[in-house]
Amino acid sequence: MKNYHIEPPNHFSLPRRIRRLGELAYNLWWTWNPDVQRLFKRIDIDLWEQTNHNPIRFLRQVELPKLNAVAHDSYYLDFYDRAILAFTRYMNNDNTWYKRNHGQSQEELIAYFSTEFGLHETLPIYAGGLGILSGDHVKEASDLGLPLVAIGFLYTRGYFTQKISEDGWQEAHYVRLKFDELPVSPVLDENDSQLTVSVNLPGRSVKACIWQIQVGRTPLYLLDSDVEDNTPEDRELTARLYSSDLDLRISQEIVLGIGGVRALRKLGYNPGVWHMNEGHSAFMALERAREFVKAGHTFEKAKELVKKETVFTTHTPVPAGNDEFPLWLIDKYFSDYMSELSLNREEFIDLARHKVSWGETFGMSILAMHLSELRNGVSELHGQVAREMWNFLWPDRKAEEVPITHITNGIHTGTWLARRLRHLYGRYLGRDWLEHIDNQEMWEAIDNIPDEELWAVRRHLKRKLVFYMRERAREQWLYDGVHPVQVVAAGTLLNPYTLTIGFARRFATYKRADLILSDFNRLLELINRPNRPVQIIFAGKSHPDDNPGKLLIQKVYRMVKKAETGGRLVFLEDYDMNLARYLVQGVDVWLNTPRRPNEASGTSGEKAALNGVLNFSVLDGWWREGYNGHNGWAIGDETDYENHDLQDQMDAESLYNTLENEIIPLYYDRSSGNLPVEWIARMKESIRTLAPQFSMRRMIKDYANDLYFPLIDKK
User: Fold this and answer.
1) How many angstroms separate the CA atoms of 611 and 606, rounded?
2) Cys bridge to 593: 35, 113, 515, 539, which one at CB 3.0-4.6 A?
3) Phi first, then psi: what are they for 227, rounded to 5°?
4) Which tens digit of pLDDT belongs to each residue from 9-23?
5) 3-state secondary structure 407-453
6) C-alpha to C-alpha distance for 9 and 15, rounded to whole angstroms
7) Domain 413-694 falls in which CATH fold?
8) What digits encode the pLDDT tens for the residues 77-102?
């Protein structure tokens, strides 16, 4: 029985006829229903943009006469009534995929732990792809009716806002979030005090309060250490993502893993499956083992019971993505906790001991591997790489026998699909097509869309992107005092009818953002070719402490500013979910150049493909599975290189040759009706083959059928 309640901090003064706008604002269902977003936009379009599409801030600031006006507008009210009816039906639907297929398991809850969640640009509590995937995971769990509860952090300063100096150097700016302006609600006890949980850190106890975000039907609980009882230093524990300070990092992961379990217990949850999304939350398994030991079990029995309920997803073959802590730090933070597990120091360290050339560490991914029953990578190739990478944990097995499977990442269709394409697909795929996103046969009807209709929408989306970029550049010039060359570098000279390539992602060196710049003279000849020019848009952040990544941004930015590019190379600062939507919906080609096999999956290209954008990518991650020779282009082949310089050289040559001899001619080859018929055919092939296969719907069903419910069935 619940001993808590949720109380939204805002009670808006709304006309009675449209009072449920406040309810909509506090449920992120609106973020993947663009027609519902227009309920707010139609009240005051300028304010909607000024508040960065944040309905809480919007309803706090909108003028009452404007609310009264729409409350008496029959057209608006009809739109409002249809949106409220759709929302009510969605929230009360008893005929979900889960109920139809796994209703017998309805008592078994899935707990999903992740250190970041990318839900919407108004909630900057994500850094990149891992967070976006987690956010999409929660949304699709809601759509499918999966009984899932999620746990993460509510970072008080979020992730940084990026500014690029005139010299191309990334500057990180942090702003304290105002929770009363966000769709988050405190979880309160019977005395209306916010619920907290406590964890022990060296010499002290630290509290974290609990917040809730409602994501459709799925609750997401977020922990925040900014509690009055904590020291000033501890109040900042959950201020920012991914600190490089080891004490702060391990403290955060203790709060997430141990505090997250305690939060779920305090909320009355008893999950049957526990999913660790990456190793940051692996202490969660230790806390559950402690519970079993406290109940009278030996540690070995507790470990067995924990494993039977645990799933672990590893997301990266790059060492920096797998947290490792020095043993002295483990001694500092877990000396008392070890005894609660009935373990001595060596037994505790053995749970995650990693022997490397310079010594020993405590590996969070190793801990997660040891304490989970089922494990997966996030693409077929990544599964192979992960089995080889972690083979040493199972020394008696061959690499192909290592118990790590794969489930390839997908994307949440409603979040990333352009509104006009959504309506276009609805006309030709059927009114209920969103209920059958992963049905390959349904997508065969994409060929029924007339070329001119699909191309008209694509041209509209590119014009929309260019207009957005120009307005951003205008604001930079007006309010940020940037140099005029930076205004040009921000895209003011782009042509909405020119072949446009997008490259947007985290600026890690292995992603090789500069690969297309490696033969600059050849690139200049291609982008400035008369009658067949090319435009390239770069965007992305580097971790604030990743100097090689920041130097890569600087290198790209300096080349973007060169006069001989004619303004056809662009760098857009402060890449976030809003900018990402414009890019994956608006460019013609999505470029991805990771050094294979370092890209575990990647999902930005999947979002682009859904919107009719053609992928041009190294055969790594998801694209190795998606590419069929007719739905985009490959850079290089599946050769494994020992020499990175040779790999870069070969991939660059492949990139330039394909761009010059295939992509550019195909785009500009027009029929008598000025349509690029062969280009459109390739677009349709891309949408038809990739949209269902790389949907989050397919992905969540795979997790449910292959990982979650097999654990439940074994019980």
Assistant:
1) 9
2) 515
3) -120, 140
4) 888 999 999 999 999
5) CCCCECHHHHCCHHHHHHHHHHHCCCHHHHCCCCCHHHHHHHCCHHH
6) 19
7) Rossmann fold (3.40.50)
8) 999 999 999 999 999 999 999 999 88
